[in-house]
Specification:
mainly alpha, globular
């Protein structure tokens, strides 16, 4: 062994550089939140109630003789069912973890809270799209049954009517999402979702401004019936009040709220 080799200092092996954490992919967050929204017993019961209520309310135009036998009439019945139950599922998607005190675990695994909330919103939108598609299918099936019963059925599924129905469902679901994101309490959010519109409905009968600009029951129904033309300013104002403003405030509150 040469002197040069013997005198060479032995250097310790340098550790491999650590890779920067990349965080949880959004697609995985989406799958997890979808599971939370659909894979529990309570969620399955709620989704089943959405389906059953949609079918149940379709019996009224199907069996009654004083209801117009048209695509619009049947689709309005489907919209009424989806409007009642599907937003409740969306509310629970945003509030259940706060009510059950499991939100600490969720935000520990993904500290960037805004991404978790956005995943919950995306899941709610997907559920809304599925609910709208189911409502359309039930409407078509009910019209086919009515025609088989010998009734004269006026079927005119215009694109504006179908798009209006889908937008109506989406607006109601997002309204539930916004209230849930703001209140962080399941019971309070569900009560607020049903009670506040009823209050504005009663007030709107006396004040035309409230009915046309604030009451979402009126403005969203214009969308449902495929008649938004001339009412877009009122629909936009109502959407800002019931969806954009509370959802924005809810996102800010979720990011800043301390978890105890």
């Amino acid at each position: 062994m040469s002197t040069t080799t013997m005198n060479r200092p032995v250097s310790a092996a340098e550790p491999a550089p650590l890779e920067a954490p990349t965080g949880i992919p959004f697609a995985r967050l989406l799958r997890v939140e979808w599971g939370k929204a659909t894979d529990t017993r309570a969620a399955r019961w709620l989704l089943a109630l959405v389906a059953l209520s949609t079918i149940g309310l379709m019996l009224r135009p199907l069996l009654a003789h004083d209801v117009e036998q048209s695509f619009t009439s049947y689709l309005s019945s489907a919209g009424g069912a989806v409007q009642i139950m599907l937003p409740v599922v969306a509310i629970l998607t945003l509030t259940s973890e706060w009510s059950q005190r499991t939100v600490l675990t969720t935000f520990t695994q993904e500290p960037r809270r805004i991404r978790v909330v956005l995943a919950k919103v995306a899941v709610s939108v997907l559920l809304g799209a599925a609910g709208a598609l189911f409502g359309l299918l039930v409407t078509v099936a009910a019209l086919a049954v009515a025609a088989g019963m010998g009734r004269h059925v006026d079927v005119d599924p215009s694109a504006s009517l179908i798009l209006g129905f889908a937008l109506f469902v989406l607006l109601n679901v997002l309204s539930g999402v916004a209230i849930g994101a703001l209140l962080h309490n399941s019971a309070a959010a569900i009560v607020a979702y049903f009670v506040l519109p009823m209050t504005f409905v009663l007030t709107g009968h006396a004040v035309a401004f409230v009915q046309e600009w604030i009451d979402s029951t009126t403005t969203f129904n214009w969308v449902l019936l495929g008649e938004p033309g001339g009412h877009w300013p009122q629909i936009t104002a109502s959407t800002l009040l019931w969806v954009v403003a509370p959802l924005t405030a809810g996102l800010v509150r979720t990011v800043r709220r301390e978890i105890t």
